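Input (structure):
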């Protein structure tokens, strides 16, 4: 890790798996899989011989099954004490959970799930195209909850691609920068509000999640954050090297920048993609064990005991990794049976 005290760049680090992040965020996973054509079961029409099914993370041939055995993905697993924000750039995710919600989302959609006091959910990656490949690219971001919100009721919400603001800036040479706003405000544009008990729902926490696409050589000034104590990380995850302040940053690196000042960014020769996370720290102790994030070890032990006893509401589905019909389209069915279709 390197540092530079006299520039807006405070730290630079390599992106591992998962990505390093800072309070109030806990975890960032970036999945990019070049899945082949799908079969009749919505799994890969390709041999799975030699893969450690159930624990397939090696990315042979450019894709992984993860914990899936027929369809790639993550069958039912529990969470407590934080939120998951899942932004899908390409491909689709089939969601099912223990409070009865279900969805198929992708191609620019974002799901925001407050686990709160406990939820079990399944995230499967159906391969819908039988005659062509099924590329998938998504981010899953874990946003912490403060102690007073760790035991709230779970909350499921969708931010559809059509409702997601995109701010486009044009530099002096006519080159463009597009900023997709999943949380926070930019140039007067705001996405639909986050879940009611989210740290991001508080106006003084300055939480923002932006995906920045710079065309080749495009210049853009990232505005200063509003909050005095806001922390900000830029993840350069794709494209050619980018100029951030007075530093050249290669793809595959994260950059902690001074959020109190504007930062000049110049895209690389072939364009650059950046994920930005920012927010005021919660500043509370964090004790995590796998899918549970609490404030102390006693809280983690209680989470395990509660999950063994209650299953966080049980599992109303006929498999641990359910997928929806091939022709279902994009939809969300909420626990109150309200249905949204896109």
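Output (sequence):
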């Amino acid at each position: 890790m390197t540092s530079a005290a006299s520039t807006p760049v405070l730290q630079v680090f390599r992106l591992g798996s998962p990505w390093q992040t800072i309070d109030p965020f806990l975890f960032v996973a970036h999945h990019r899989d070049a899945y082949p054509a799908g079969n009749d079961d919505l799994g890969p029409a390709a041999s799975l011989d030699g893969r450690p099914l159930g624990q397939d993370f090696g990315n042979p041939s450019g894709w992984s099954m993860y914990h899936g055995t027929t369809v790639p993905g993550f069958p039912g697993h529990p969470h407590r004490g934080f939120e998951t924000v899942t932004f899908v750039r390409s491909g689709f995710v089939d969601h099912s959970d223990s409070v009865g919600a279900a969805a198929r989302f992708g191609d620019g959609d974002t799901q925001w799930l407050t686990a709160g006091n406990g939820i079990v959910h399944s995230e499967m990656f159906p391969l819908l195209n039988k005659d062509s490949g099924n590329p998938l690219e998504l981010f899953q971001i874990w946003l912490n909850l403060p102690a007073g919100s760790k035991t709230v009721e779970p909350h499921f919400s969708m931010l559809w691609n059509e409702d997601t603001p995109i701010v486009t800036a044009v530099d002096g040479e006519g080159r463009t920068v597009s900023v997709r706003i999943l949380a926070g405000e930019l140039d007067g544009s705001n996405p639909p509000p986050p879940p009611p008990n989210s740290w991001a729902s508080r106006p003084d926490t300055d939480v923002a999640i932006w995906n920045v696409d710079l065309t080749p050589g495009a210049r853009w000034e990232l505005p200063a954050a509003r909050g005095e104590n806001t922390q900000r990380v830029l993840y350069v995850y794709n494209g050619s090297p980018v100029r951030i302040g007075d530093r050249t940053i290669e793809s595959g690196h994260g950059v902690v920048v001074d959020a109190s000042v504007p930062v000049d960014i110049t895209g690389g020769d072939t364009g650059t993609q950046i994920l930005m996370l920012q927010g005021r720290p919660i500043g509370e102790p964090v004790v995590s064990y796998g899918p549970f994030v609490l404030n102390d070890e006693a809280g983690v032990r209680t989470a395990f005991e509660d999950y063994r006893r209650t299953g966080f509401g049980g599992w109303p589905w006929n498999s641990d990794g359910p997928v929806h019909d091939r022709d279902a389209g994009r939809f969300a069915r909420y626990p109150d049976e309200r249905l949204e279709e896109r």
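Notes: DSSP finds one helix and 24 strands in the chain. The mean pLDDT is 96.
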